[in-house]
Amino acid sequence: MIVRIMGEGQVILADGHLAELNRLDDELLAEMENGDGPGFRRTLQALLTRVRDLGEPLPDDSLEPSELILPSPDATLEEVRELLSDDGLIPG
Amino acid sequence: MSGVMKRMGMIFRAKANKALDRAEDPRETLDYSYQKQLELLQKVRRGVADVATSRKRLELQLNQLQSQSGKLEDQGRKALALGREDLAREALSRRAALQQQVTDLETQHATLQGEEEKLTLAAQRLQAKVDAFRTKKETIKATYTAAQAQTRIGEAFSGISEEMGDVGLAIQRAEDKTAQLQARAGAIDELLASGALDDPSGMHKDDIQAELDRLSGGTDVELELQRMKAELAGGSGSGQQAIEGGSDGRQSQQQPQDTPRFDKQ
């Protein structure tokens, strides 16, 4: 599983870690939807840290499609919300 | 999984696919390309910050070494005044070693400063390009949206296809620029990874260089000792100096001060 952290690069993660990351990710989504700014920041940092710890960074010159994408570490709740609601691009 | 990670992944994949899919909608291609450029810009900016941090660290180390060097010189002077030539010799040997480190650090500092300037310039240029691209992108998007809204689609499309040529060029240019900057960022990474910054002491040298340094350091020490002795002895020292340094006693008093610095260049 390849995960991109925007503005930072890609890491490759073993699928076994997904359950734990998923929990943080769902938390992050809930905080975003509730507009909980401080919570969002905390969870985003925690999630990024876990991904960096568990993952192996891919070399910068490799070009692999990312299966999952995470906002950059300094992204705000508003920016992420805007990214996700961008022109109704979400399929389905 | 339906969290942020998955949703962002889906959005970006959709954008990438559409970008690859012969640009069905140029607006998405442009947005995606713009997003990529922003990512790159952030990377370059981080590079600038990293290099600047290393430079500041080097400056701190240089200051420390220089004050240490000054302290050792004072100690040498005091030791000699107390008649402890052995102590003075030790202090001056240490000082000579420190001065060598200072010279090495200064070289690194100059290199780093050059890199920092280059990177800063690159970041500024990229920023300008990205800004220009954003403006152009918004213009094209607006044109495209307006054209779509028109009833006479056929006419509008003939106009758009010309625009699309421009878009292709803009993206091509952005990609070229990206590759160029990546190469540059790579060079900086190499500079940082070369270990030059992690080893500011300049300790690993080959045997011959070490021996040479020791020899030249020794010479410096002797010269410094001579100078200090001359200082302590006052006027009577000039006779001794004349024997060592040649006929002009005054000039040879001056000489030892300059020589050590000159030797290390």
TrEMBL record, chain A:
PspA-associated domain mapped to chain residues: 1-92
Organism expressing this protein natively: Streptomyces collinus
Pfam families according to UniProt: PspAA
Name by which UniProt lists this protein: PspA-associated domain-containing protein
From TrEMBL, chain B:
Pfam families reported in the protein's UniProt record: PspA_IM30
Coiled-coil region(s): 48-143
Region listing for Disordered, in residue ranges: 228-265
Keyword Coiled coil carried by entry: yes
Domain of life: Bacteria
Keywords, in A-Z order: Coiled coil
Protein name as annotated: PspA/IM30 family protein
